[in-house]
Predict the structure.
Amino acid sequence: MAYAWTSDLETGNTKIDGQHKQLIAAINNLLDACAKGKGRDELKYVTEFLYDYTSKHFADEEKLQLQSKYPDYENHKKYHETFKSVVKDLMNQLNAEGPTIVLVGKVNSSIAGWLLNHIKKEDVKVAAHIRSTK
């Protein structure tokens, strides 16, 4: 089941929405590879991409939050740090155990679920705040 970009994921910030779309595309690429029996082959690439890209994306988001004096910046940053830690743990598990079906499932549930929930609940608040300060 691929994830679709829907209006409830839109923050209204073109840069952030574009980055979110790329993150969802990476997850969908993993799901597509799994459907074709190639999930294990894609796992290392996707986890590395997600770690690197979310680090850049989170830095961009946090910069916008600081510029706009977002009042919940500290908590939002903690969410980002927790997520990066989860991805790093999955990468370490991948390096230790190799690509397993269980790990593919973990990546899908831990990463995709977290990202979509975070965008819908937290990032839209940030975007609304940024819009209100302009």
